[in-house]
């Protein structure tokens, strides 16, 4: 007998009994046609590749200078973490904490948690505390705001360019790429097929 799962439509609450979906197909609500479930193609390998790329970009973004500022012959480079420390030193500890959590810690935790789920599954092993980690990923996902932070950096760079010479560092490029890779990694993730594999 084929395994069936019961899903409530998130738009109209209609209950559906669904058999396991073939790869690349989507189940729609009978009443309002909202997407109930979609079984993405080769989701495990694609998510794994995107999350490993994200981890490398995350490392580069944090290890190298974000921008260098040249003024009156003095050159100052700052990293992401250095920026957080500067904000803290200037008394803006609330903003420093906000940047630390939304631009560094939450995106980092999100990438690591996804790899924690995907790597064992790739080798046909069930990760420990799977449901807890899935809940954790879904809880912290809205708090990753690298795109907002990037917009903030670009606005301040444009303003600074008029007064001092600003040189973009390697971290700025990798951080920009990281935003797209993390978004791709999140959309490639298919929790339904993860449950099925586990
Ligand atoms: Zn519906």
TrEMBL record:
Key words of the record: Membrane, Transmembrane, Transmembrane helix
Membrane-spanning intervals of the chain: 48-67, 95-119, 140-161, 173-195
Pfam families: PqiA
Protein name (Swiss-Prot/TrEMBL): Paraquat-inducible protein A
């Amino acid at each position: 007998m084929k395994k069936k799962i019961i899903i409530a439509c998130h738009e109209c609450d209609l209950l559906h009994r669904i058999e396991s979906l073939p790869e690349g197909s989507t189940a729609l609500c009978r009443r309002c046609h909202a997407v109930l479930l979609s079984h993405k193609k080769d989701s495990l390998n694609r998510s794994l590749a995107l999350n490993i790329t994200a981890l490398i970009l995350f490392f580069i973004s944090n290890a190298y200078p974000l921008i260098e500022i040249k003024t009156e012959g003095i050159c100052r480079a700052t990293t992401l973490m250095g920026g957080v420390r500067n904000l803290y030193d200037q008394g803006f500890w609330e903003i420093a904490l906000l940047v630390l959590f939304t631009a560094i810690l939450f995106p980092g935790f999100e990438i690591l948690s996804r790899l924690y789920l995907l790597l064992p599954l790739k080798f046909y092993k069930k990760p420990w505390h799977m449901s807890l980690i899935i809940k954790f990923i879904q809880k912290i996902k809205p708090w990753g705001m690298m795109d907002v932070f990037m917009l903030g950096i670009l606005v301040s760079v444009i303003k600074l360019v008029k007064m001092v010479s600003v040189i973009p560092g390697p971290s700025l490029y990798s951080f920009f790429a990281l935003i797209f890779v993390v978004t791709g990694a999140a959309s490639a993730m298919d929790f339904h097929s993860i449950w099925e594999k586990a």
